[in-house]
Design a protein that fits this description.
Length: 397
């Protein structure tokens, strides 16, 4: 056989499963950003605050005391106990620390474990579009099929219970929601969530509820999905420390669910991750014990910035619905006639302001960009004045 025909018949080096997903639209954009000087970034979705000092110190002391070994696969017993107390105090939910909680490498690992633990090939998971970048790929990588439900500015980017029900088939396994939402900042009312719970009950579906932004709400209440009647048994609650405690780099989160689901997730976690880094777990204990004041201070600051950015975007002509949670504004850029990707790229090159194209979060993100306001007020104001110049130059309507 000639060399040529050998090459032609070589097997693909990577799996079809991986080929089915695309690299994150956010990452692609940040590679471009890194090559330009003097950029104001409203791009990356993480707090600009450092981790509160007392949390970092707890971890530093633990290293000095020699806490450098593996922990239990499920997470340090003291952390699980503290988490169980926290969920009881915050939501009046009783999770057994020994069997119903798992400490994960952020919500990122929680999402991956959840999908691999619950899905068989071809099972469907219903989720909103736009939504957090990992949702759909995690389903695909686990052999499942993501089923998107369009949401829009007119309905405040809330997924409609009727639209969910219209997409239920015999293969539907779960509904995946995340409120407060990334990229829109939308928050769902208890009433709307109860209607989703009703659909889940009627069709015996699991609900995966990503509540990583639960503490970052402005003038509204966050409803923990598992607190809805009969929902604790059918909900996989995912949350973590990254956003509320400004701990993105520590890589720690958790899953709370039934004994059966947590056991399945732990089986995968123990062979793939073993355990979450020990010092991050120690920091997690300190955060749960005494991190509340730091959250309050950060939320006060986000509140101020939110008012400035939402008003500023609307004044420029970029219609922006009022986000009630997280730290994102999601304005429409339709008056420029550009696609989201074109808008983000040209704004970056012409005015050195980084925003993320709405399409990084799904097809329904077309016509929008995500602006993260977890950055200083001074930078937000400067970014707004650059964006005004850009929009004045390019608006077509
Ligand atoms: C909605 C949502 N879920 C999960 C994550 C991942 O969080 P973690 O740092 O806990 O892995 C993010 C991060 O941006 C997010 O926005």
């Amino acid at each position: 056989m000639s060399t040529k025909s050998k090459v032609q018949h070589r097997k693909s080096l990577t799996s079809q499963q991986v080929e089915r997903i695309s690299p994150s639209g956010i990452r692609k954009f940040f590679d471009l950003l890194a090559s330009i000087e003097g950029v104001i970034s409203l791009g990356v979705g993480e707090p600009d605050f450092p981790t509160p000092r007392h949390i970092s110190e707890a971890a530093i002391h633990s290293l000095e005391k020699g806490y450098t070994m593996y922990t239990s696969n499920s997470g340090m017993p003291e952390l699980r106990q503290e988490l169980s107390r926290y969920l009881k105090d915050n939501y009046n939910l009783a999770y057994d620390p020994n069997s119903e909680l798992l400490i994960t490498v952020g919500v990122s690992e929680g999402l991956d474990l959840t999908m691999r633990a619950i899905l068989d090939p071809g099972d469907e998971v219903i989720m909103p579009d736009p939504c957090y970048v990992s949702y759909s790929p995690c389903v695909t990588l686990a052999g499942g099929t993501p089923v998107m439900v369009p949401t829009n500015q007119e309905n405040n980017f809330e997924i409609s219970p009727a639209d969910i029900e219209a997409r239920v088939t015999s293969r539907t396994k779960a509904i995946l929601i995340g409120y407060p939402a990334n990229p829109t900042g939308a928050v769902m009312t208890r009433d709307k969530l109860s209607q989703i719970a009703e659909v889940a009950r009627r069709h015996q579906l699991l609900v995966i509820s990503d509540e990583i932004y639960a503490k970052l709400v402005y003038g509204v209440e966050h409803t923990c999905f598992a607190t809805l009647p009969d929902m604790k048994e059918n909900t996989i609650l995912l949350s973590g420390f990254s956003k509320a405690y400004a701990m993105t780099g520590w890589r720690i989160g958790y899953a709370a669910a039934t004994r059966e689901v947590i056991a399945a997730m732990t089986k995968i976690h123990q062979y793939t991750m073993m355990c979450v880094p020990t010092m991050a777990q120690v920091a997690g204990i300190e955060a749960l014990k005494s991190g509340e004041d730091s959250i309050t201070e950060m939320v006060e600051e986000y509140k101020r910035r939110r008012l400035v950015i939402v008003k500023g975007l609307n004044d420029i002509g970029l219609a922006c619905f009022e986000p009630r949670g997280a730290f994102y504004a999601f304005p429409s850029i339709k008056i420029t006639g550009m696609t989201s990707e074109e808008f983000a790229e040209r704004l970056l090159i012409e005015e050195k302001v980084a925003v993320v194209p709405g399409t990084a979060f799904g097809q329904c993100g077309e016509g929008y960009v995500r602006c993260c306001y977890a950055t200083s007020l001074a930078d937000i104001e400067e970014a707004l004045s650059r964006m005004k110049r850009f929009v004045d130059k390019h608006r077509v309507v």
